[in-house]
Design a protein that fits this description.
80% of the residues lie in helices and 0% in strands. It is built from nine helices and no strands. The chain has one domain: Orthogonal Bundle (MetI-like fold). Keywords: Amino-acid transport, Cell membrane, Membrane, Transmembrane, Transmembrane helix, Transport. It is found in: Cell membrane. This is Amino acid ABC transporter membrane protein 1, PAAT family. InterPro entries: AA_ABC_transptr_permease_3TM, ArtM/GltK/GlnP/TcyL/YhdX-like, MetI-like, MetI-like_sf.
């Protein structure tokens, strides 16, 4: 196989690995933050609001710097190799950042669920967690599929920042390819853009299908 193709395949796999792990993490983290934002406990609401306001308004690059350089400085490391450690730290940074946007998107979906449904659930003896998990969140997720898709597609593109922190993904693959074949810089740039375009369009089609099948119109 052509070495350049191997380089781009490796970079694409690195991007997909970062995206997959971060997707799981930010969906969990965003759901927890959204639940805290609507919690009846003032301390939880305040902590979640403070976290979202601070992290969401901080550039992702700074969040990545803190995780990649700040956590090791505090002697917090993951994995036995530098590559694995960088990968996990990049995933943590992307998860911490994207969870804020997921949480705000979900919170807007929670606001669309009629209050009467939650009151009816509480009337039959369900607690706050049960009302949220069985009644509110399933509807909220279905309501916000379109904006949620936009957040996740943006997160896919944000994985490119991880290339500056010793992670193998598409941008780092492109740089390596340019070092080898500096005579075809423009085609290499176009190839990288094309791969991102294909991945983003693929995600867009997935969310378009989910929207058609599941979305709840209010």
């Amino acid at each position: 196989m052509n070495p350049l193709i191997q380089t781009f395949l490796s970079g694409t796999w690195g991007t997909l690995a970062l995206f997959g792990v971060t997707l799981i993490g930010c969906l969990i983290g965003g759901t927890i933050l959204a639940a805290m934002r609507v919690s009846p406990v003032p301390i939880l609401r305040g902590a979640a609001a403070a976290y979202v306001d601070v992290v969401r308004n901080t550039p992702l690059t700074l969040v990545m710097f803190f995780c990649v350089f700040g956590l090791p400085y505090l002697d917090i490391r993951f994995g036995s190799t530098a590559g694995m450690n960088s990968f996990v730290l990049a995933c943590i940074a992307l998860t911490a950042y994207t969870s804020c946007f997921i949480a705000e998107t979900l919170r807007s979906g929670i606001a669309t669920v009629p209050v009467g449904q939650a009151e009816a659930a509480r009337a039959v003896g369900l607690g706050f967690g049960q009302v949220l998990g069985y009644v509110v969140l399933p509807q909220a997720f279905r309501t916000v599929i379109p904006p949620l898709g936009s957040v996740i597609i943006a997160m896919l593109k944000n994985t490119s920042i991880a290339s500056a922190f010793n992670n193998r993904e598409l941008i780092s693959a492109m740089r390596n390819a340019i070092e080898v074949r500096g005579d075809i810089v423009i085609p290499l740039l176009l190839a990288t853009a094309l791969i991102y375009l294909v991945l983003a369009l693929g995600l867009g089609r997935v969310f378009a299908y989910l929207e058609k099948r599941m979305v709840i119109l209010r």
